[in-house]
Specification:
heterodimer, A: 309 residues, alpha/beta, Rossmann fold, Alpha-Beta Plaits, six-stranded mixed beta sheet, four-stranded antiparallel beta sheet, 10 helices, B: 237 residues, mainly alpha, 0% strand
């Protein structure tokens, strides 16, 4: 891999194992300013990788640097780094503002109250800042945690599944905020197991599967690779035999078979074309489509394809 | 005032914990009052052995300190809030020392008051004896706190392991294995009490006050250093 000179974070041949279990295996990548999405199914090794990138956990082998400095046992780096873990690491007995203020004080933030006001306003929590955190909803706690993460104005943000527990309105707000922070020149690494979250946010995507880096690049390139993989699509209609006979003639269809329950299972390597061709075919054959659903659209199957393929 | 210190004070000052600590602190005073008022009043040596050595320095002080120092880190590890402290530019000793001070701040008043009242009742207000008992109790609190604080960093079972340590090491082995006494916080505290008031307290198989002071310093600095080292090397959940 060619390493760009501007890499903010450099992960080089990093592995981590627990006894005989390999959580992360020989991963190498660079992170540049902007938003980088770390995508992978649950248990893929994302959190372990992020914990090593933040210096919370040590790598069994390999090196991780940030701004050219080792991240492990290097507290001064945390002036430039903000981390939000996937766990709700809050003190329930504290009020929201108190929590953000304490985190700012621990990081030696000057003009404390101004910084706290700014961070809380960023996450739109000014109205609830004086409530105890144990009374917050999960989404509110996440937002206050984000305020505590950005209160010292860090150049790098590492966020592990930050959208968990957020409602749709909060998600929109959260995404806008991250985009704004990235536009200001920050480096943001955000992990998720949900493809769409990363698609909307990240300029660059790191796909992690079974502890390995399965792919890296722009989301469109990865999406295109995903669209060329074989898909199984289940089609319910009022005339399954007629539909099956007609569907085999479509260029986007590789195979068709009929299920005993009357469903037509279509195998396609060009699902984008199939999405257009199938309704037209049904209309031409006067077949009424009742339901069309992908059978293997889970993230695990997508990753499985990328790793094997 | 350090944020870590204030945070730890709030985390540890739970109502039930304080109630239990109060009950424990009252016990030696009651025992002393009963012993002194009985017709068969014990000698100073017997009183020191039973009340000051076994009950205060060997049981009440370590139990109270364990209830505070054990969870000071262990609860943060379990709740995963320790990352809030480690993901800061603070040198690790600036996390360990305020935690230690907060633990001592909370435990010392209970143990010191208990020791002071016990000594006052037993020695009829003899100022030097009261000072010796109280000061040695506070030193014991500091030593136990440094040990149990470290224990909370290396194990989430700090309370269980700490109880075993109190019963087996401080209570059982140090009672009859002379070599163990050199490594027993209880005996360090008692030896220092002898050093402060040699007029009233003398005899017994304890290290000399000078040796005890050196060993106590070593225990305190050693466990703080071990805690700092552990914080630098551990995987923080």
């Amino acid at each position: 891999m060619i390493k760009a000179a501007t890499a903010v974070i450099r992960v080089d041949g990093v592995s981590r194992w627990y006894g005989s279990v390999v959580a992360v295996s020989d991963v190498t990548f660079d992170v540049q300013p902007g938003i980088t999405g770390l995508l992978g199914p649950n248990g893929a090794g994302k959190t372990t990788l992020l914990r090593m990138m933040t210096g919370l956990a040590t790598a069994s082998s390999g090196t991780i640097t940030m701004f050219g400095q080792p991240v492990r046992d290097n507290p001064s780096l945390y002036r430039r780094l903000g981390v939000m873990s996937e766990h709700e690491t809050v003190y329930g007995f504290m009020r929201g503002r108190e929590f953000v203020r304490a985190m700012a004080k621990l990081r030696g933030v000057p003009h404390l109250d101004d910084a706290v006001d700014r961070a809380i306003a960023h996450v739109d929590m000014a109205d609830a800042q004086h409530r105890r955190m144990e009374t917050y909803s999960r989404g509110m706690r996440q937002r206050m945690r984000l305020a505590a993460t950005i209160v010292h104005d860090p150049e790098v943000l590492i966020l592990d599944e930050p959208l968990n527990g957020a409602d749709p309105r909060q998600r929109v707000h959260f995404k806008r905020l991250l985009q704004q922070l990235a536009a200001e020149g920050r480096t943001i690494v955000i992990s998720s197991h949900i493809l769409e979250e990363i698609e909307e946010l990240a300029d660059d995507v790191l796909l992690v599967v079974n502890g390995k880096l399965a792919a890296q690049g722009g989301f469109r390139a990865i999406r295109a690779a995903l669209n060329q993989r074989p898909y199984h699509v289940r089609v319910m209609s009022d005339a399954p035999r007629k539909l099956a006979a007609a569907a085999v003639t479509l260029p986007s269809v590789d195979a068709v078979h009929l299920d005993p329950d009357g469903a037509v299972i279509v195998l396609s390597r060009n699902v984008l074309d199939l999405q257009v061709a199938l309704p037209r075919l049904a209309q031409a054959e006067a077949v009424r489509l009742r339901k069309v659903e992908p059978l293997d659209d889970s993230l695990e199957s997508v990753f499985g394809y990328l790793v094997e393929g | 005032m350090s944020t870590v210190y204030l945070l730890t004070m709030r985390q540890l000052a739970g109502r039930w914990r304080l109630v239990i600590m109060t009950v424990l602190a009252v016990l030696p005073v009651l025992v002393a009052a009963i012993m002194v008022s009985s017709a068969d009043a014990p000698s100073v040596r017997e009183f020191e052995e039973v009340v000051l050595g076994t009950i205060i320095a060997g049981s009440i002080a370590p139990l109270v300190v364990l209830a505070l120092a054990g969870p000071a880190f262990a609860n943060e590890v379990e709740d995963r809030t320790l990352a809030n402290l480690t993901l800061t530019p603070l040198p690790r000793w600036r996390i360990v020392l305020p935690k230690l001070l907060a633990t001592i701040t909370l435990a010392a008043p209970f143990i010191a008051t208990s020791a002071l009242a016990t000594a006052y009742v037993a020695f009829l207000g003899d100022p030097l004896a009261v000072v010796a008992v109280t000061a040695s109790a506070i030193i014991g609190v500091a030593l136990y706190a440094s040990a149990f604080l470290w224990l909370g960093l290396v194990s989430t079972q700090a309370i269980g392991i700490g109880l075993l340590y109190i019963v087996l090491w401080e209570g059982f082995f140090s009672g009859f294995v002379s070599g163990v006494r050199l490594l027993s916080i209880r005996h360090h505290a008692i030896a220092l009490m002898h050093g402060i008031d040699p007029r009233r307290f003398a005899g017994g198989d304890h290290p000399s006050p000078e040796v005890a002071a050196a060993l106590a310093g070593l225990v305190l600095v050693g466990f703080v250093a071990l805690s700092v080292r552990r914080m630098r090397r551990m995987d923080v959940p």
